[in-house]
């Protein structure tokens, strides 16, 4: 055990919680979001929406999107999919997206952005609204405004991605767990898993925390969702994601992409930069071992944090760490995946407001938040150096993982009574070592 100095950052918290500050930041953030959408209106750039639309259209016409020439289909529609030549999204997501292909492309695009915006607004309410977060009203407004200008959020809307939907589902899961609606929590996690797969790692969190009802509903939701998907799309189309989609996403060209911030990709690039993209058999085995070791470090940190005394997971510290780690452990991850970091950020803000967050945790989080903004600005100002600048996106993620780990292990103003079921707050400062 070691003593940690109290760093409540009350001065900063008081400044951010002033009414005028809340309205100012929220107003500026709203203007920035409006400016982003105005730019998208002037310059139609569907980006990842093109992949979703072409995949859904093929699926609607009974063609397997995981084996068909996706780029050719998109080109006929006047869309571009870049280097993506086949569907890369889970079949349940494509099934849910398919109805949008009944609309004209531009209309479908804006309906899709509307769905994203609604999901993001819902996530902000779940994460920051005083009735859920116990934050003062004006501080909640300030933090919601800061969340709106978080660089990964803008990136998600700019390329018409879908991770804000996952953010909403995981935030809803967390609030349901908080209110003991474990069945609903399990269903929300099942939907997130069927849509994107990597959130299913949080099922282990439910297991280690003995949330058996949530686990049962998650398993049931997965079985029913998978069965409905197979019934609607057929077994061949449904299994196409496992047979070809996953292999396509883990090809060397995606790991070489400097924008891929998954641990496996970053470790692979380090080896390939040093030894060339065509490693010999022995070196490639070492690369795979290095990936396994890096993943194992994160998993060990997860397990050590989860095995602590905090059975109730006060402030959802451990869940926040699992959310952050799920991004890094995903086979592929991109900058827009970091919208999920708003979950640990929101929980850290709630804990800090009550004097229960360590200074190093808040400092690392603030540094990551600022760095994401700097990276986005640098990419616009120095596009010729984009490959080098994008390497910093992984640093943003690592900083949030470290901050989340400290958040899950540092205990400021909280002690544990082993003779009681609940956590009791006491006026003392300790950190689990």
What do these coordinates show?
With 433 residues, this protein is mainly alpha-helical. The chain has a two-stranded antiparallel sheet with strand order 1-2. The relative contact order is 0.11. Strand 1 and strand 2 form a beta hairpin. It has helices at 10-16, 19-42, 48-60, 70-76, 91-97, 105-128, 130-133, 137-148, 151-158, 163-178, 182-196, 202-208, 212-233, 235-249, 252-256, 263-275, 281-306, 317-329, 342-353, 359-381, 386-409; strands at 410-415, 424-431. The protein has 21 helices and two strands. The longest helix has 26 residues, at 281-306. Helix 11 (182-196) packs across helix 13 (212-233). It has two domains: 22-249, no CATH class; 257-433, no CATH class. The N and C termini lie close together (6 Å). It is 69% helix and 3% strand.
Principal-axis shape equals globular
CA radius of gyration: 22 Å
Helix content: 55-70%
Order of helices and strands: HHHHHHHHHHHHHHHHHHHHHEE
Termini gap: 6 Å
Q: Trace the largest sheet across and list its strands.
A: 1-2
Strand content: under 5%
Count of folded domains = 2
Structural class: mainly alpha
The number of helical elements comes to: 21
**Residue ranges: pLDDT <50 for 5 or more in a row?**
1-8, 414-433
What topology does this entry show?
Layout: H1 10-16, H2 19-42, H3 48-60, H4 70-76, H5 91-97, H6 105-128, H7 130-133, H8 137-148, H9 151-158, H10 163-178, H11 182-196, H12 202-208, H13 212-233, H14 235-249, H15 252-256, H16 263-275, H17 281-306, H18 317-329, H19 342-353, H20 359-381, H21 386-409, E1 410-415, E2 424-431
């Amino acid at each position: 055990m070691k003593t940690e100095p109290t760093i409540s950052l009350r001065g900063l918290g008081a400044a951010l919680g002033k009414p005028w500050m809340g309205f100012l930041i929220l107003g500026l953030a709203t203007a920035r979001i409006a400016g982003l959408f105005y730019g998208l209106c002037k310059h139609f750039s569907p980006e990842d929406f093109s992949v979703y639309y072409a995949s859904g259209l093929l699926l609607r016409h009974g063609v397997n999107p995981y084996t068909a020439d996706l780029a050719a289909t998109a080109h006929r529609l006047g869309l571009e999919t870049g280097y993506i030549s086949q569907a890369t999204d889970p079949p349940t997501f494509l099934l849910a997206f398919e109805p949008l292909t009944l609309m004209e492309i531009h209309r479908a695009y804006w309906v899709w952005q509307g769905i994203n915006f609604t999901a993001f607004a819902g996530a902000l309410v779940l994460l920051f609204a005083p009735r859920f977060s116990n934050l003062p009203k004006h501080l909640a407004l300030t933090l919601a405004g800061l969340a709106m200008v978080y660089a990964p959020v803008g990136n998600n809307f700019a390329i018409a991605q879908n991770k804000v939907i996952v953010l909403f589902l995981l935030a809803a899961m967390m609030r349901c767990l908080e209110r003991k609606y474990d069945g609903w929590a399990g269903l929300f996690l099942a939907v997130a898993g069927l849509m994107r797969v990597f959130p299913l790692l949080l099922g282990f969190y439910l297991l280690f925390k003995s949330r058996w009802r949530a686990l049962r509903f998650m398993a049931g939701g997965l079985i029913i969702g998978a069965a409905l998907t197979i019934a609607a799309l057929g077994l061949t189309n449904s299994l196409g994601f496992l047979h070809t989609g996953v292999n396509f996403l883990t090809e060397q060209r995606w790991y070489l992409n400097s924008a891929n911030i998954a641990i496996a990709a970053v470790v692979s690039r380090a080896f390939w930069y040093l030894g060339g993209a065509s490693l010999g058999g022995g070196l490639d085995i070492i690369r795979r071992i290095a990936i396994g070791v890096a993943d194992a470090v994160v998993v060990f940190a997860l397990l050590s944090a989860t095995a602590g005394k905090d059975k109730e997971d006060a402030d959802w510290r451990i869940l926040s760490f699992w959310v952050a780690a799920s991004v890094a452990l995903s086979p592929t991850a991109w900058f827009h995946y970091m919208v999920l970091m708003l979950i640990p950020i929101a929980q850290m803000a709630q804990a800090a407001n009550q004097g229960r967050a360590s200074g190093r945790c808040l400092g690392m989080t603030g540094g990551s938040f600022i760095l994401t903004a700097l990276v986005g600005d640098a990419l616009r100002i120095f596009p010729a150096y984009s490959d080098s600048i994008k390497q910093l996106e992984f640093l943003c993620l690592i900083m949030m993982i470290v901050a989340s780990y400290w958040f899950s292990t540092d205990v400021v103003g909280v002690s544990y009574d082993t003779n009681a079921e609940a956590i009791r707050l006491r006026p003392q400062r300790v950190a689990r070592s």
